Amino acid sequence: MQYSIATAITTILLASTFTFAAPAAVPRAASTTINIQEKTGDGDESIQQTIVSNGKLQTTQTNGIGLGSAVNALVVDSGFTCQAFSDAKGATKLGSTFDSTTTASFTDASDGEVDSNASAAVAIGSVCCDTTALFASTCGKLGSGSGSGSDVFPVTIQIDGLDELATQGDIVADGKPHALTAPLEGQDALSVSIVHTHEAVNCEALGNKNAKLGAFSVGKDATFKKPVDIKAITCTVA
Predict the structure, then answer these.
(1) I need a surface site. Which of 35, 67, 125, 170 has the fewest CB within 10 A?
(2) How far apart are CA 151 and CA 183, in angstroms?
(3) Stretch 27-50: mean pLDDT, rounded?
(4) Is the pTM above the cut of 0.85?
(5) Could you tell me the domains of the chain?
(6) What are 36-39's contacts with CB under 8 Å, separation 24+?
(7) Is the pLDDT of residue 20 over 50?
């Protein structure tokens, strides 16, 4: 009997020395790419864009091209939710959230059907996507729906080069020089113009050491007598 009591006491003392680890936190899923379908407003025409889904703002597609303009959007891949913004900083929400079953409308002027007009399309400054399970804790915390920071937005630029080669990309209109990246960089430019902007802007093409090459604005291109290598572009709200 004494042995049994001693054994029981020893067992209790040993058990009290063990601690139980808390369940490990569920790791975030790795960044992945998803497809978004956008109605351009040109009749019922639609395009697909590939976007990184990682709970962070994206201002370009995975190929480096800007997000462009649309009248509405839908996620092609199930299990993901997205929110578009009219600015590059994710301050002003553009429409509601959208997923594979719910379309977000960006304007009341067009429904994206056959009688729609492309002039109704709205510029998309950025988009944030995540798995539906994580969306509320990441992208869902962005944006107020009102204008703080809405004065910063992307301007779609087109560079026309030799052999009638035209390349488009986005530059943020914040008054700062932005070095060109793919697909705009490395082009032998004969002219540079604005394809789309949320507001009126004045832009300047810059060469080495930010030397001014030519100013341009909506409807007024900068043209060059011989090909030039544009290193950066700066755009400021007019």
Answers:
(1) 35
(2) 25
(3) 84
(4) no
(5) 32-141 (2.60.20), 154-237 (2.60.20.10)
(6) 36/73, 36/74, 36/75, 36/76, 36/82, 36/127, 36/129, 37/73, 37/74, 37/75, 37/76, 38/68, 38/70, 38/72, 38/73, 38/74, 39/70, 39/71, 39/72, 39/73, 39/110, 39/112, 39/116
(7) no
